[in-house]
Design goal:
The structure is a single chain. With 274 residues, the protein is an alpha/beta fold. It folds into 3 domains: 17-89, no CATH class; 103-165, no CATH class; 174-273, Zincin-like (2-Layer Sandwich), CATH 3.30.2010. It is 43% helix and 22% strand. The termini are far apart.
Length: 274
């Protein structure tokens, strides 16, 4: 009777495990390497490098021994060092304030940014309707004119809001361009995405959900020359053939985009355009 009172129902334990929340991130050290570890309801361990500092981030299934995590890191130490060296060689993205005189790249071309608040000048460059919208609704207008990127916005827009205006405009450029890119790249690869969307990401140029066929494209690719957008779309579509980046994936990339290794090296050096 006592045993029955102190033991939980096995079915209840299983239900609790299924709805278990993610654990907190905790810092650990393995020799000279610092890494962050988080336990999740997953089946295998994953290792990623995140941010400009290339911090090592490990996710592991619950009840994985710390010794197993450390062995996993040790087995991938050569890859970690390679990625850290590559990160160190990348040209760092400049700090932006989205002010007049800054250079903004669109499809690989440099445009001087001109931020406008004066309604008469806005009417002259952007037309009456944008000016009225600015006055009545606090809206913003972005357009390319006379080799400049014009941002017409209320004077009280701070850096974050000005960035949002540029990002929204750039997203619309990508969304207008991507259907043709996916059509052409899909014919080349022999696979079709189920759907796609554009989102600003910090560490990835694109992602592919191989189960659903849904592909995400990084908004910042709109700053780079168009050939890099095609390269990333082909890369993500190829994941519909091969999930990982192993030999079979590389072989297919050689077939679909022979210059992919060159693009992979070049794109790391274009951070100044972002």
């Amino acid at each position: 009777m006592l045993l029955a009172e102190i033991c939980e129902d096995p079915a209840r334990i299983k239900r609790n495990q299924l709805i278990r929340r993610e654990s907190e991130l905790k810092a650990h050290r393995l020799g000279n390497l610092e890494y962050l570890l988080q336990y999740k309801t997953i089946r295998r361990m994953y290792l990623r490098l995140k941010g400009p500092e290339a911090k090592v981030f490990v996710t592991a299934p619950y009840h994985t021994a710390l010794s197993e995590v450390e062995q996993f890191i040790s087995d991938n130490m050569a890859w970690i060092e390679l990625q850290k060296n590559r990160q160190a060689q990348m040209v760092q993205k400049p700090a932006r304030r989205y002010e007049t005189g800054e250079v903004v790249y669109v499809w690989g071309k440099a445009f001087e940014l001109l931020v406008l608040h004066d309604l008469d000048m806005v009417r002259q460059l952007c037309g009456d309707k944008p000016a009225e919208a600015l006055q009545k609704h606090g809206a913003a207008t972005v357009k390319i004119a006379n080799a400049k990127l014009l941002l017409a916005c209320p004077e009280d827009f701070d850096v974050a809001k000005r960035e949002q205006c540029i990002d929204l405009w750039l997203k619309r450029q990508l969304e207008a361009f991507l259907p043709a890119i996916f059509q052409g790249c899909g014919s080349l690869v022999g696979k079709r995405e189920s759907s796609w969307y554009v989102r600003k990401m910090k560490t990835r140029w694109g992602t592919c959900n191989t189960k659903t066929g849904r592909i995400c494209i990084n908004l910042t690719l709109g700053h780079l020359p168009p050939e890099y957008l095609s390269y990333i779309v082909i890369h993500e579509l190829t994941h519909l053939w091969e999930k990982g980046h192993g030999e079979q994936f590389r072989s297919r990339m050689d077939q679909f985009y022979p210059r992919w290794r060159e693009r992979q090296q070049e794109i790391r050096k274009l951070a100044y355009m972002l």
